[in-house]
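Retry 2 of 3 after timeout on previous attempt. Resubmitting structure tokens to design endpoint.
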């Protein structure tokens, strides 16, 4: 089993970024998200 990692993802409100974040969270990693649009970022899980 892979240990939990802290990962920084940029562009998290984009098409690819939101799927990347979802997969990382599903695998138990801690995600730090960076986005230009605060309103969209607040809707992220």
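Retry 2 succeeded. Sequence:
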């Amino acid at each position: 089993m892979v240990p939990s990692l802290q990962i920084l993802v940029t562009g998290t409100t984009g098409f690819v970024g939101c799927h990347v974040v979802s997969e990382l969270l599903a695998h138990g990693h801690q995600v730090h998200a960076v986005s230009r649009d605060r309103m969209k970022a607040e809707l992220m899980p």
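Attempt log closed. The radius of gyration is 10 Å.
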